[in-house]
């Protein structure tokens, strides 16, 4: 009987510790969620600090995005031998803030290298790809731009050589 009491008290301590961890984690997560944002358990919350209202688009963003797509097309047509010029292009044109996402998608779709758009609950990914441009054996480059739905801001633009 004494052995069972020890097991129970150990189990009780484990449950109490687990309860404290859950309370701490949920309190921490709730601090990062804005009042108008809902969240499912375990879902990553992207930062939304300084996000402009949903309909407050920056017209300069579309001009910059148009310039980016034009420059990307010229660069990928030139078939650079390394990824470095693509990364430099991303550094010159990003970040962008307050973009009208539908207008940005429309601009991207005009690119010779437009690949696809994918949508999640919190963002859009616009992808470009030059695989096979100069021949069947050409791996080409994959470039993707992420635009946050809540703000129209870019988030982690990226490029890599296709495998």
Topology at a glance:
Elements: H1 2-31, H2 59-77, H3 84-93, H4 101-108, E1 114-119, E2 123-129, E3 141-148, E4 158-161
Antiparallel strand pairs: 1-2, 2-3, 3-4
Helix pairs in contact: 2-3, 2-4
Q: Which structural class is indicated by helix and strand composition? A: alpha+beta
Give the overall form. Answer: globular
User: How would you describe the oligomerization state of the chains in this entry?
Assistant: single chain
Strand content: 15-25%
Question: Spans with pLDDT under 50 lasting ≥5 residues?
Answer: 3-53
| Biggest pleated-sheet summary | 4 strands, antiparallel
How would you spell out the order of helices and strands?
HHHHEEEE
Mean pLDDT: 76
Order of strands across the main sheet: 1-2-3-4
- Strand element count: 4
Task: Give a description of the structure.
The protein is an alpha+beta fold and 163 residues long. It has a domain at 59-161. The chain has 4 helices and 4 strands; from the N terminus they run ααααββββ. It has helices at residues 2-31, 59-77, 84-93, 101-108; strands at 114-119, 123-129, 141-148, 158-161. A hairpin with a 3-residue loop joins β1 (114-119) and β2. 18% of the residues are buried.
Summarize the structure.
This protein is an alpha+beta fold and 163 residues long. The chain has helices spanning 2-31, 59-77, 84-93, 101-108; strands at residues 114-119, 123-129, 141-148, 158-161. The chain has a domain at 59-161.
């Amino acid at each position: 009987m004494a052995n069972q009491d020890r097991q129970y008290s150990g189990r009780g301590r484990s449950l109490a510790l687990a309860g404290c961890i859950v309370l701490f984690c949920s309190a921490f997560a709730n601090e990062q969620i804005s009042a108008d944002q809902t969240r499912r358990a375990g879902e990553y919350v992207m930062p939304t600090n300084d996000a402009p209202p949903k309909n407050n688009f920056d017209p300069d963003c579309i001009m910059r995005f148009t310039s980016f797509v034009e420059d990307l097309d010229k660069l990928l047509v030139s078939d650079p031998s390394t990824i470095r010029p693509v990364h430099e292009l991303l550094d010159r044109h990003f970040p962008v803030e307050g973009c009208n996402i539908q207008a940005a998608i429309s601009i991207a779709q005009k690119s010779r290298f437009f690949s696809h758009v994918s949508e999640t609950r919190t963002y859009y990914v616009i992808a470009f790809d030059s695989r096979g441009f100069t021949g069947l054996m050409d791996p080409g480059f994959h470039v993707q731009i992420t635009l946050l739905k809540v703000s129209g801001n870019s988030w982690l633009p990226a490029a890599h050589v296709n495998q």
